[in-house]
């Protein structure tokens, strides 16, 4: 009982993810499942980014690179190597983590805006590379033979299964986010976010801590990439590395509350809902990105702590629940 | 035993010679006062000792090991802690969390549970216990100085570098802080203390080292220093300071 109480923040977050996913589970409605699948994907991406952006204080503008890279490697393993989805997801996570490790050694020495710019460069560089990499299909990408889905009980079943896998990934990423937030390693990250020099003077080995934060923030996007393009049935450079999705991820984290566990979950769900309304509206369809840019500006100006950060300040008693 | 040996240390920033050929030994358990006019190089000397800067020349030896050019976190792990003249609180973390960082990542590298226990003790010691759950950014200057002190102490260092912990405090806060410094020394921690508040540093130091334009112009007991003509001359540019220096020695 006592341990449950100690982890109220985790329980709240997990329950909220399940509540978000419950409608299609109960109704079995395929359209609603597609909507929620996108929201769960956003939760995984935003919560992962939050480990770097919210806990460590480093803005990655090109974080979608890990989604795309993991997605490509996973897709290649399934279509060209005949591997299972499980192997593909595992590999997607591992290669993205590895990419982050190498990048971390190279660019995490840069601070502030320089790091942010470098991450954009990395995303564009990887996209350019894959555009010219024949085994991955170059600019046209790769497509999957539908017979691949046979192994999973047919296309319909594979779609449904993808949804449940995404739900599991979302729950796992929330656990990861919570464990990092409440660990000694996480305290070191928060110290780096607040003042990197002061943190180092107190003994935090910032170069290592930052690199591991970067790696942790890259693994789940890589796995989700592999799952997403398996379900999608095709992959091409423009779908795998959309820079604007990187920016949307930042908006989600900021909207919900950077540096909290629950914030990116609510931010992702809220943003996806809004985006859904915008893209179906004839007026806003084409300026949906401008709206997210404007939203980001408003958040930074008026509620820099995001919804959850604001609520934690407003009602300190709720801090145990809202983590 | 010498806990710290500074040997022929120089540091220049472009054309500016901030430190030239500073040499001294610090025996374990002492309080060394470091004084000098503004811009004399006192903070720079701290920065060279704890690894913020690599000296342009010379060596720093800590507990018998050459640590010249080591990173600040290496120095923290080796048992050196410091406060900052311009305080650096981790604003969005609580006072408790700030101090836990010191205990978790410093010399003894504790887990969170043990770190919390140490932080409680240290916060009690510096008189910030009631503020433990407050955000560090919401403290006033005097409290932030004590927080700097608490973070440094939580690592249970061998050597503590205090950079103007009395600046900006009112007389009763100064008395409180001086008392804290004395009690830290009683725990066996060696201290180097930079200070402009003369009566305090003259009272509390075993020895004093005087810097002027990066040169080490005098070293000795507080009595010797307050009567040293070179020191008085260095402070003559600021007659008030010179006056306070004389008073302090009495
Ligand atoms: N990073 C730096 N780059 C360039 N010059 C510097 C740097 N740090 C210090 N200085 C210069 O070195 C000299 C010594 O500065 P330092 O801060 O060590 O003085 P101080 O004795 O601590 O003075 P104060 O009593 O005002 O704190 C000053 O002229 C200062 O401007
Ligand atoms: Mg100074």
How would you describe this structure to a colleague?
The complex is a heterodimer of chains A (323) and B (250). Chain A is an all-alpha fold and 323 residues long. Chain A has one domain: ABC transporter involved in vitamin B12 uptake, BtuC (Orthogonal Bundle). Helices cover 76% and strands 1% of the residues of chain A. Chain A has 15 helices and two strands. Chain A has a two-stranded antiparallel sheet with strand order 1-2. In chain A, α4 packs parallel to α6 (112-131) and α12 (243-256) runs parallel beside α14 (288-302). Chain A starts with a helix and ends in a 9-residue tail after the last helix. In chain B, a hairpin with a 2-residue loop joins β9 and β10. Chain B has helices spanning 42-49, 72-78, 95-105, 112-126, 141-154, 171-186, 198-204, 222-227, 229-236, 239-249; strands at 2-13, 16-27, 31-35, 57-62, 65-66, 80-82, 159-163, 190-194, 207-212, 215-220. Chain B is of the alpha/beta class and 250 residues long. The longest helix of chain B has 16 residues, at 171-186. A six-stranded mixed sheet of chain B has the order 6-7-8-3-9-10, sandwiched between helices. The radius of gyration of chain B is 18 Å and the shape is globular. Chain B is built from ten helices and ten strands. Chain B has two domains: 1-79 and 158-164 and 187-250, Rossmann fold, CATH 3.40.50; 82-157, no CATH class. Chain A binds chain B through residues 183-184, 187-188, 190-191, 193-195, 197-206, 259, and chain B through 50, 52, 71-73, 76-77, 81-82, 84, 88-93, 97, 100-102, 104-107, 109, 111-112, 115, 151, 155. The structure holds adenosine-5'-triphosphate and magnesium ion (MG). Adenosine-5'-triphosphate binds at residues 13, 16, 18, 36, 38-44, 85 of chain B. Residues 42-43, 85 of chain B line the site of magnesium ion.
